[in-house]
Amino acid sequence: MDNTIHQFSTAFSISVVRMRYEGAGANTPVVGIDRQPGTVNYLVGSDSTKWHTKLAAYSGIVYQQLYPGIDLHYDGTDGFLKSTYTLAAGANPKLLRWRYQGSKDVQVDSAGNLLILLGVTRLQKPVMTL
């Protein structure tokens, strides 16, 4: 599967973290959920042929069948990125594996939250639903 890129910026620097799901399906469909009112424009750079306009906005996305019988749902909760893994009956949770590139360190705190050490970022622990 392609790398998921999370970009975090502060007044002083920009950090890019690449997240790769090891062994995941290469053509996993990504579907927006809970469409929001209005549209979004990405006008990056001076080349207008590369601009993206009037894009739909969603409150979350789902990677369908990231692994056999496992969907991954991302949304925002209280300013944090939240991931929820939904496992179908008989799905193997041991298939879930990922790597972070570009971070100084990755740790799990006492509450089970994943800490990607860049100086500014914390991901809440994932939620598993059956």
Walkthrough of the structure:
The mean pLDDT is 84. The chain has 130 residues and is mostly beta strands. The chain is globular, with a radius of gyration of 16 Å. 8% of the residues are buried. A hairpin with a 4-residue loop joins strand 1 and strand 2. The protein is built from no helices and ten strands. The chain has a domain at 25-99. A five-stranded mixed β-sheet has the order 3-4-5-6-10, with no helix packed on it. A three-stranded antiparallel β-sheet has the order 1-2-7, with no helix packed on it. It has strands at 4-9, 14-21, 30-42, 52-67, 70-77, 80-87, 98-101, 105-108, 114-117, 127-129.
Features:
130 residues; mainly beta; 5-stranded mixed beta sheet; 3-stranded antiparallel beta sheet; 10 strands; globular
Give the low-pLDDT segments: none
* Main sheet characteristics: 5 strands, mixed
How would you sum up the global shape? Answer: globular
In which order are the strands of the major sheet placed? 3-4-5-6-10
Computed over alpha carbons, the radius of gyration is 16 Å
DSSP, total strands: 10
Number of helices: 0
What is the helical fraction, as a range of percent? under 10%
What fraction of the residues are assigned to beta strands by DSSP?
over 45%
Structural class: mainly beta
The N- to C-terminal Cα distance equals: 24 Å
